[in-house]
Design brief:
The protein is mainly beta. 4% of the residues lie in helices and 39% in strands. The strands form four sheets. Strands 12, 13, 15, 16, 17, 18, 20, 21, 23, 24 and 25 form an eleven-stranded antiparallel β-sheet that branches. A hairpin with a 5-residue loop joins strand 16 and strand 17. The radius of gyration is 23 Å and the shape is globular. The relative contact order is 0.16.
């Protein structure tokens, strides 16, 4: 019986293994010039602790998300595996070993060879587990082989931070909405791990609990289309985009419409500064529907615009995320809690996290009374 070296994960210490230094040292060890370097983006791991959920018996859990970049510094290498460990102080909370088969599926690459001077992205890496002991450190070991069969290993340790939002947010919609994406492993927003890892997407449900009527090929057939969007909190409009066209469901606009401005990926959008370093984005709004302009002061519950299908959007929906700055894909996203909605027959007057696939009913009276 033969064994493929690329499918095995060797021990992390032993003969023929080059151990990379711990962070804080810029030196890289080498075996005859075959270097392996591992980096993370973002450089610090921002995690979310979901300790307030709209379920009476749901236990708290935590979520970490980051990208890894592996570089062959001076010789071709074949990535053999990753070892991921999560610690709370000295206590090991979680260990995962990703062999070559797992890495091929994670990266979408059939060949895990890293040519000299080039790199390979592994991500997004999403780790979820209970929240009873908060993680403080992520330890990653990457294992690769040289052409002669010798093993090279690199190690990276990343501190974990749990940002807390300061803005008290009301649910910004009326009626019944399905949260199709939120903060869990299935969230496609984690492809952009800086400003949108905790973004939420909402679609309106119609009388039959569907997204649309008929075949859904027209914008007007979607229940979300044209629905009003209200300010979740007061502040000053820092950004307002209003002139991007709404696309038919399932179609993407010509990339030239983005004009190399990443904010235009969000289509017609409003960003509100909450005077505490935090900015809320409301995106994919209907063309020419904005009821506010840049520089305007808005109140909690004030009409901002209407749900559309502009920018990079598969169908009418509201995209919402909170950041610790105004710069998309640069400033760090923050976990989002909201209040003033009903879920599972329960009214939530205090902010809680909204998980993926939950049906949320926004109350018009709560928004109007706080306007």
């Amino acid at each position: 019986m033969t064994h493929e070296h690329s499918e095995e994960l060797p021990h992390t210490h032993g003969q023929g293994v080059t151990q990379a230094p711990l962070p804080g040292s810029e030196a890289l060890e080498t075996i005859e010039g075959a270097w392996l370097r591992i980096e993370s983006r973002p450089e610090k791991v921002y995690a979310a602790h979901y300790d307030a959920l709209p379920f009476p018996h749901a236990v708290s859990h935590q979520e970490l998300a980051f990208d890894l970049g592996l570089t062959a510094m001076a010789g071709d290498l074949k990535l053999n595996g990753l070892i991921l460990r999560l610690y709370a102080g000295h206590q090991l909370l979680l260990e995962q070993r990703w062999n070559a088969e797992v890495l091929r599926k994670q990266t979408g690459e059939d060949d895990l060879t890293i040519s000299a001077g080039s790199g390979l992205r592994v991500g997004p890496v999403v780790l979820m587990l209970h929240g009873h002991a908060a993680a403080s450190l992520v330890d990653v070991v990457a294992v690769a082989r040289r052409a002669n069969g010798e093993t090279v290993e690199a190690r990276l340790q990343m501190p974990v931070f749990y940002p807390q939002s300061k803005t008290q947010l009301d649910f910004p919609l009326r009626g019944a909405w399905w949260c199709i994406q939120a903060a869990d492993w299935s969230d496609m927003h984690k492809r952009e791990l800086y400003s949108q890892p905790y973004a939420l997407d909402f679609v309106r449900l119609n009388a039959t609990n569907g997204f649309f009527s008929g075949d859904g090929q027209t914008l007007e057939s979607h229940a979300s289309w044209g629905q009003p969007v209200y300010a979740a909190a007061g502040g000053k409009v820092a950004y307002a985009q209003h002139d991007m066209p709404d696309m038919p469901p399932g179609l993407q606009p010509d990339p030239r419409i983005y004009r190399d401005d990443p904010r235009r990926l969000l289509g017609n959008a409003v960003a509100i500064s909450h005077a505490n370093g935090e900015f809320a984005y409301y995106a994919h709004l209907q063309q020419a529907s904005l009821a506010v302009r840049e520089g305007e002061l808005v109140r909690r519950g004030q009409l901002l615009g209407r749900v559309g299908n502009s920018g990079q959007s598969p169908g009418p929906h509201l995209h919402f995320h909170l950041m610790e700055g105004p710069h998309l894909m640069i400033d760090q996203g923050l976990p989002v809690r909201m209040r003033h909605f009903t879920a599972g027959g329960q009214w939530f007057a205090e902010p809680v996290f909204i998980p993926t696939r939950m049906i949320v009913v926004g109350a018009a009276s709560a928004l109007e009374s706080s306007a």
